[in-house]
Amino acid sequence: MENLRDKVLKTIDKFSLIHKGSKVLVALSGGPDSVTLLHLLNQLKDRLSVEVAAVHVNHMLRGEESERDEQFVRELCRSWKVPLFVERVNVPGISKGKNVEAVARRERYRKFKEVLESWKGDLVALGHTASDLTETVLLNLTRGTGLKGLRGFLPKRDVFIRPLFEVKREEVENYIRENKIPFVVDSSNLETKYERNLLRIEIVPILKKINPSLEDAILRETEILREIEDFVSSEVKNLVSAYLKKEKFCIPISTVKQIHPFLFSEVLREAYRRISTKELSFEKVQLVRKILEKEGYREIFPHRGFKIYKEQEFFCIEKEGKFEKFSFKVDNLPTTVETPLYRLSFYKNRGIPILTVREFEKNGLIVRSRLPGDRLMFKDFSKKLKKFLIEKRVPFSIRDKIPIVETSGRIIFIPNLYARRVNSPEFIGVEFEEKAESSNSRGEDSKES
Amino acid sequence: MENLRDKVLKTIDKFSLIHKGSKVLVALSGGPDSVTLLHLLNQLKDRLSVEVAAVHVNHMLRGEESERDEQFVRELCRSWKVPLFVERVNVPGISKGKNVEAVARRERYRKFKEVLESWKGDLVALGHTASDLTETVLLNLTRGTGLKGLRGFLPKRDVFIRPLFEVKREEVENYIRENKIPFVVDSSNLETKYERNLLRIEIVPILKKINPSLEDAILRETEILREIEDFVSSEVKNLVSAYLKKEKFCIPISTVKQIHPFLFSEVLREAYRRISTKELSFEKVQLVRKILEKEGYREIFPHRGFKIYKEQEFFCIEKEGKFEKFSFKVDNLPTTVETPLYRLSFYKNRGIPILTVREFEKNGLIVRSRLPGDRLMFKDFSKKLKKFLIEKRVPFSIRDKIPIVETSGRIIFIPNLYARRVNSPEFIGVEFEEKAESSNSRGEDSKES
């Protein structure tokens, strides 16, 4: 078997994990992997010209065992003469809930970075091995995650490096035996314990009957997937940067038609992520792809406050400007009122008759956006305006923009949707004109951006 | 549970598997999957406006059992009134060798296409299910195949379609039970029986403890991989077509530097495949990537007869012209001989003295390419020319092009490598000039293409 030290040096070289003069903080749980990693890096520190320290996070989740682990790493680092930082963390909202491990993990990584910063270090070295990678990939494949899941964790990401990336568990075990290195049962690695154990104990040994070099196969495959991911993401970034301006992404439909549907989906996801910091689900992406094939103006609101739409020439993603409520009092005629979607003009004896002159002279009228509790009167019944708009399939996004005409507290007109008609020779009438939506949905940024 | 018929109709629609008026040949082993497929398509034939027939290939590999299966499908098709073609095939080089199933499979698919053609049909429908896909993906992941392996088989490829692509084994079993459909144990599905059984019986049930919808997860993941593959291959095809001319692929180095390394690797593989009909291994691809980073002229011969090289401005792949042996007799002076790599000139009393005038007048000299058995004479020993060239690190590709100068059966001169010097006032001398390799390695196609 290849010497473990040489193998790790190769990994460090292959993925450019550590540069000369770096300060490397080893995340030390006390388990076999992290202890091996610390032992190796501590031995290699002169050769690599690096400074090495360790950090241990005690989550205090398992009482005495946690204390034992902390005590163990303290003694180990003392005897190896490695500076050690110990952080005791109370995971908020404790208990043995399913999420506690995910929370603890996030908390741990946050602590690693904090300690790294205060130590003025460069890198945090994690003890994950090719065996962990194999289990992660199988687990993610089983759960059904996307490309990122299938390629598993990375040899390097941000300040985190994984020098044991290409090392198998057996190699760690041999190294520990040969070098008589003490360790505790890795207590910080509780996450998804049940599922990981199924994989580690039941699945992997059977798969190794088919291919004894299972970990190497997974390493090769994840390498291909990492390369693909890198390629796709560089193509995506080029396109997103080219068409993203000030929190608004607009790409010509003609360009969309030239790029591969897969690339478009990824561009869509990335542009939406940058604008909204939210994720577009697989289903929403499919939906967007479908509207692209349709004629005319189409829009989708994947999350409140964010809009994806296509019009004649452009496909766009933008923040919806937070809409201002409006209210205009009308008491002399003729008057034209500008509202977001409609221009309304009121005349004497012209247009749709919605009010008698007498009523108008007594109460005037108001053009406003809808209010909670609004109701519409019909012949024999009344109905909540909200319910009415839903029944009429008025999209949520424009409900606040529709002008409501009321007089003395009663709704008498909504363009295209509702009109109380009066039958009187002397009446106040309304005429309305729909504003072209496209004129404000392209080119300029929305108010809020 | 969703009605199986509706589910299959959705699959057919989603992947555009069958068009109206098609003639569909169902590959019928007699096993549950193929019998279910035939039952479904036979029921749907009016709705889909298709004509349905079946084909059974009897490999006669398992004696009576093979006969029983053939008999079974004959009776089934008679009772369902489906035209049936039966092909009896003797797999050449029989025996229970490991490869017999792969050979049988290839033979079977060939027969399917033959029958399809003689029936003037359009499509061959195969009974593979989402459960088969799950096993295939897990198997390929374990063995360590690339992207194509991870995405498993396709819903449609060439004339072959898989209408049960999204159907799970349990759904087939329920359908068979509900509709009281007879079947035999699927005898044609012996391939990699041991490994498949490990997956089917041992692995999949455990993974389903983690995710009961395992097949759906795999379907989603393979869909992503198919999309990526399609995207990558369209990008690759664009580049290969742009730079492949008459069995020679030449792409400017400046372009290579602009495209992503992953894309370049795929372009390299595809261009090499088109020129040589051979595959470039992962290692060879890495090697090519490395020479690109180096200065000056570099070349690689991945397979005999095919050359990959980079020079100042271009990176190229080409067929090596098959080299013609050469031999020139020299008997008057001065004479200049043109050989592939060198121009040699022979003079009296000028140049490197390799021959006395007397020797020359008696035997003349020959300039030729090397011959098997050539040996070189040194002071106290002789050495095989082949061994000598290897020791001198002369690349294989140019060994046949090197000019050998001999007189009366003895090698006396090889440019840059060997010279027998004579010490005589009256001598025959040689001068040589290296031809610029680059002048024939760019631009023109090689002789053979």
Automatic annotation (TrEMBL), chains A, B:
Enzyme Commission number, as recorded: 6.3.4.19
Catalytic activity of the protein: cytidine(34) in tRNA(Ile2) + L-lysine + ATP = lysidine(34) in tRNA(Ile2) + AMP + diphosphate + H(+)
CDD domains: TilS_N
Domain (Lysidine-tRNA(Ile) synthetase C-terminal) ranges: 365-432
Compartmental location: Cytoplasm
Keywords: ATP-binding, Cytoplasm, Ligase, Nucleotide-binding, tRNA processing
Pfam families: ATP_bind_3, TilS_C
Family designation: Belongs to the tRNA(Ile)-lysidine synthase family.
Domains as described in the record: The N-terminal region contains the highly conserved SGGXDS motif, predicted to be a P-loop motif involved in ATP binding.
Biological role: Ligates lysine onto the cytidine present at position 34 of the AUA codon-specific tRNA(Ile) that contains the anticodon CAU, in an ATP-dependent manner. Cytidine is converted to lysidine, thus changing the amino acid specificity of the tRNA from methionine to isoleucine.
Protein name per Swiss-Prot or TrEMBL: tRNA(Ile)-lysidine synthase
